[in-house]
Amino acid sequence: MPTINNNRNKQQGLALITVLFIFALASMLVINIQQRQSLDIAQTSSTLALTQMQTLALSAEDIAKAGLILDMNRDNDQNEVWDTASEQWNQDIPLEEAGAKILVSVRDLQGLFNLNSLYNNNAEAKQRFQRLLDEVGVQNAAAIVSELTLRLDPNGSPYNVKGAGILLAHPSELLTLDSMELEQYKLLEPYITALPNSVALNINTAAPQVLASWDPALSLSDATTVINQAHAGSCGIAVRNNNVFKTTDELWDHANIKSLVSQTNNTLWQKADFSVNSQFFAVLIQVHFNEQLLMLESVIRREKGNFVGVIYRDFSKTMDAMDNKIITCSKI
After folding, report:
1. In angstroms, what is the C-alpha Rg of the chain?
2. Which of 59, 99, 225, 260 has the fewest CB within 10 Å, making it most exposed?
3. Strand 307-314 vs strand 292-303: parallel, antiparallel, or unpaired?
């Protein structure tokens, strides 16, 4: 009889353990389901927030494009077709929408050094790029110039040089060069762009370092003096009209430039290389929402007839990269 009781107790104990095991397993499954649901909800919420931020960024881009169209139409109506660093579009635009804080900045890309000017082994552009690299403190300048020149040589073999003879679509393509390091690129990034190789430099928005690279006889100090004529230090139409190069002839007549362009056999200065207005702009957008930050850089082309086309959009920008590129008239 005691044996029967012992077996019964053992069976009851085993059944209890089985029940506890099943209960523990069920509890773990419930917890796992809850965690997965929480994760799914968080992911869905994050996706919805990201989608909303992207929509707000694209809407802000449309606002910037509309502002540039209004600026172009006003200039055409007033026969004042020049773009300067003291204009209204060159100010930060703070916006608030749907609980998000948005900051929109516009930068004239034609005030920067165009990397594609080295296309087809342009000797003068190579020298200017070398001087710009030296001016901003980039090491290994000669190797960078040589490698980029080969990259942009249409006679180069595409089997030996990746993408040989094809214009750069974005300045970050410099990082594909063996001689370009990230820290060196960061020094250079605020001064460079990648536009069609025939695009002229807008003297009214040019960076002094870029103008100084034009001629070894032009110091950075003298280039800054020239640029300051269009960088009035404040914003607005009235300020702009009194601080602007209205034609390239006015640049040629500037005291710091006149002696250079008048030198015999000086081919560094060609009026076709300069302009007083621009077609290419970067719209830099920051969207802050629910403790998240989204940044967008859109490069656009503005032409007569109200045509504004987006060349590319880049959502990979960092805050440091944005800050380096934003140079408004209020900061000049």
Report:
1. 30
2. 99
3. antiparallel
